[in-house]
């Protein structure tokens, strides 16, 4: 795929491979996770939450699902947005990456997260196209919104899993009428970003096939990662 920087074996078969994906004048840091014996499988790209809210590829939801799904036979790729972890970013002098991402959130500049995601998707396609049957997106919180917006543009995406998508009044959801792949939404029943009135109005925009699953959790799914993984795996295996 890309230049190998570090590889470690989790168990007898599961391997983690650190990768660097060229982006603008730098690179994005990522981790591939896969079964050493895989020859033909589905790929899953995992999009982390906002950098202000534990938004790295080492977030508990993203990291645990990457391992869980790769142990089930999927090839997974999680990555850091520009300016997060070791992913590079080119900013004006005096502007920190956290200030940059705060502006992204305040002004809803989703393009700043969509573009690196598209680069990751293209890189995975070009590197492993002959071995991947399909590519799915899985996003958590802010990453869920980004994943859905990427799927609006890229018709070849096989499915989107949106975990803890914020259903709040400051966002617009009418773009979801253009996302035609199968979609699984998972929210916690105690999620502070889930506003029932917003959800009830926005759900009408979501095209079929679609599924909403509510778990007894808050926004963060701490200590419930395995339950979350089983829901996602069931969805992917029954597409």
Layout of helices and strands:
Elements lengths: L5 E4 L4 E10 L2 E10 L5 E7 L12 H12 L3 E5 L17 H10 L4 H18 L3 E9 L1 H12 L6 E4 L19 E6 L7 H7 L7 E6 L9 H13 L2
Parallel strand pairs: 4-5, 4-6, 6-7, 7-8, 8-9
Antiparallel strand pairs: 1-2, 2-3, 3-5
Structural commentary:
The chain is an alpha/beta fold. It is built from 6 helices and 9 strands, in the order E-E-E-E-H-E-H-H-E-H-E-E-H-E-H. It has helices at 60-71, 97-106, 111-128, 142-153, 196-202, 225-237, and strands at residues 6-9, 14-23, 26-35, 41-47, 75-79, 132-140, 160-163, 183-188, 210-215. A 9-stranded mixed beta sheet has the order 1-2-3-5-4-6-7-8-9. Helix 1 packs across helix 6 and helix 3 crosses helix 4 (142-153). The chain is globular and about 45 Å long. The chain starts with 5 loop residues before the first strand and ends with a helix. The relative contact order is 0.14.
Largest sheet: 9 strands, mixed
Percentage of residues assigned to helices: 25-40%
Shape: globular
In percent terms, what proportion of residues is strand?
Answer: 25-35%
Helix/strand/pairing category = alpha/beta
Uncertain ranges = none
Distance between the termini: 27 Å
Helix-strand topology string: EEEEHEHHEHEEHEH
Mean pLDDT: 92
Task: Summarize the model shown.
The chain has 239 residues and is of the alpha/beta class. Helices cover 30% and strands 26% of the residues.
Which tags fit this structure?
single chain, 239 residues, 9 strands, 26% strand
């Amino acid at each position: 795929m890309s230049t190998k920087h570090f590889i470690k074996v989790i168990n007898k078969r599961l391997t983690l491979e650190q990768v660097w994906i060229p982006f603008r004048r730098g690179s994005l840091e990522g981790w591939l996770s896969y079964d050493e014996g895989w020859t033909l499988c589905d790929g899953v790209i995992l999009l982390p939450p906002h950098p202000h809210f534990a938004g790295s590829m080492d977030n508990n939801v993203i990291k645990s699902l990457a391992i869980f799904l790769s142990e089930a036979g999927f090839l997974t790729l999680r990555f850091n947005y520009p300016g997060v972890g070791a992913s590079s970013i080119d900013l004006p002098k005096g502007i920190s990456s956290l200030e940059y991402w705060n502006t992204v959130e305040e002004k809803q500049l989703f393009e700043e997260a969509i573009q690196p995601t598209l680069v990751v998707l293209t890189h995975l396609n070009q590197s492993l196209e002959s071995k991947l049957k399909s590519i799915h997106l899985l996003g958590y919180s802010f990453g869920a919104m980004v994943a859905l917006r990427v799927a609006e543009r890229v018709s070849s995406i096989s499915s989107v899993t949106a975990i803890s998508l914020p259903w709040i009044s400051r966002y617009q959801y009418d773009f979801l009428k253009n996302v035609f792949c199968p979609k699984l939404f998972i929210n916690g029943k105690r999620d502070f970003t889930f506003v029932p009135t917003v959800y009830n109005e926005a759900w009408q925009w979501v095209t079929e096939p679609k599924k909403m699953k509510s778990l007894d959790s808050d926004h963060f799914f701490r200590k419930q990662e395995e339950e979350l993984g089983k829901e996602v795996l069931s969805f992917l295996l029954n597409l």
